[in-house]
Structures are given as structure tokens and as C-alpha cells.
Amino acid sequence: MAYTEEEKKEELKRLAEFLNSVEIPAEVLEKGPYAAAVSLLISLPTVEDQADLTEENAAEKLHLATAHLVDLEEPATVKYLSLYTQVRADAGVLSESELLSLINEINQGVRVGHFYCSRVETGERMVQYRASVMGAAELPLDEGVAASAVLEMGIGYDHMKSVLTESAHSEKREGEKE
């Protein structure tokens, strides 16, 4: 199903209003320098203390995800909202096989979506998290289902970040012992 930009924007606005009403900050981003298509920017819920949040540390402290509606070929019977985030933690201390094993292990416990590892332009490894929400093509997406997926992503993000952070600290402690 191909959506017009206006249809996408209206659906994402409706989801943003609901997410904000349940205290999950969300905002629609217009197509432009920060978004290739109209998107929804969501602050994933977190157990991390946000009291010391500043403009300088916001990129590190906030757990942001983006969401967009996926265009499908006709005839489409479902619509998809694709959610995506990058886990902001140092994965560099783990070997390739250790990191992939860790991701596979954590993926067995997440209820929504999956983690995967990719390389960015600098060659650095990045752990990413992707999930999808489905709904009937002719109906608005269920806000409760979308909010539940966002909550689950927040839990998964916190877990992966804490495991990666602990791995980095363990590696540093091991290095200091030698």
C-alpha cells in the first residue's frame, strides 16, 4: 500500500499524540535534512536516571527510536510501522564472535523485534534494534499495540546497553589487573 506523505503524517501524528498522552515523548519529523521520509521520533522509556540530562549529553543519555510507515505493493492487506534504534554503548571491547553470541542470546529473550550488528562508515560496529507493528491496511494502527512495542523496545534497549556497558567495564578491569 503506497501512502501519500500527508496520510503518513496524519497516522504518525495520531500515534505521537497517544504516546505523549501516556508519557512517552514522541514528535513527528517532516521529510528533510534529518529524515529521509516523514518519521516519528520517540524517546524510549528507560530506567536510567535522566536528572542530569543536558544538551551536551543528550545523545548519550536519551534512547531515541524512529518509526516510519512502510510502503507496500498493491494489493496490501496489512500495514507496517517499522521502529529502529541504535544502542549507544561501546561494543568494541568484545570480539566479533562474542558480540554475535551476546546478541543471539539476548534476542532469545526480547518479546518484540530483534537486535543485530552492523558496521558504520568508519568501520565501527554498532548494535541496532528493529521492531515492526502490523495492522489491517484499511484501519488506523492500534495505538496500544504501538505503545506496547515502544515499551518493550525501551526494556530491550536498557538490557542490551547494560550488558554492553558491563562487558566494557569488565574488560577494563581485566586490563588493569595485568
Describe the structure in your own words:
With 178 residues, the chain is an alpha+beta fold. Helix content is 38%, strand content 24%. It has helices at 5-21, 58-61, 96-107, 143-177, and strands at residues 26-29, 39-43, 64-69, 78-86, 114-119, 125-136.
Given helix and strand content, the structural type is alpha+beta
The parts where pLDDT drops under 50 for at least 5 residues are none
What percentage of the residues does DSSP assign to strands (E)? Answer: 15-25%
Secondary structure tally: strands: 6
Spell out the helices and strands N to C: HEEHEEHEEH
Number of helices: 4
Radius of gyration, in Å, reads 18 Å
Largest sheet: 6 strands, antiparallel
What is the terminal separation in angstroms? 59 Å
State the share of residues found in helices, binned by percent: 25-40%
Give, in spatial order, the strands making up the sheet with the most strands: 1-2-3-4-6-5
The global form is: globular
What's the mean pLDDT score?
A: 86
Q: Can you give keywords for this protein?
A:
alpha+beta, globular, 178 residues, 4 helices, 6 strands, 6-stranded antiparallel β-sheet
Short description:
With 178 residues, this protein is of the alpha+beta class.
Layout of helices and strands, plus pairs?
Elements (H helix, E strand, L loop, with lengths): L4 H17 L4 E4 L9 E5 L14 H4 L2 E6 L8 E9 L9 H12 L6 E6 L5 E12 L6 H35 L1
Antiparallel strand pairs: 1-2, 2-3, 3-4, 4-6, 5-6
